[in-house]
Amino acid sequence: MGVVMFEELVELGEKGLSDEEVKARNFRAKLLGLMYEDLLCVWFGERGGYKVVERDVRSGLYDGERVAVDFILEKDGRLYVVEAKCWPAYDGGRFKKLTLKNIDRVKREFKTHFLNKDFVSKYRFKGRNVDGKILVWWDVEESEAERIRDELKLDGLILLKRVLNELKGDAYAERIIREYKEWADQLFNALLK
After folding, report:
1. What's the pLDDT at 163?
2. Averaged over 61-86, what is the pLDDT?
3. CA separation (Å) from 177 to 29, 46, 58, 103, 109?
């Protein structure tokens, strides 16, 4: 067996997988879900040139209603709201790749104000207007990326698959991964003893 790509370990949607493989991929996707925001922080700062102002933001308001988002970023004095929907195994992998064909289903399924076209004009963070919004998704149909950005009124569409590949060899990202691995090993070792 050759080198296994991380996508093969977490993605669902392929036909013919055994029940055991589906269960394994779901499990690994959930583990990835526990740590990808930490890895995104590294990428935003090192590759994207952003400053992470706040994570797991619960205090922002959209049209007067509290709305949670994953990050507030700052770059060149501009604030960006970020939502990361990165579950490659969610709903059997039906939403792992964002396309023009599934964009309406994505809007209905995720029921987030973030995908509304007026989100940027109506969202306030600590009383301040924001300047744009960025969506992090597992994968996208590359040939449709620009039209998807336009449809969702995005200032950025970042692919988590690409981020994870770009972070390979990054010392800080590797330290985060090793830390999570150590914690998981501690738990599994305790359960086995």
Report:
1. 94
2. 94
3. 14, 17, 26, 32, 30
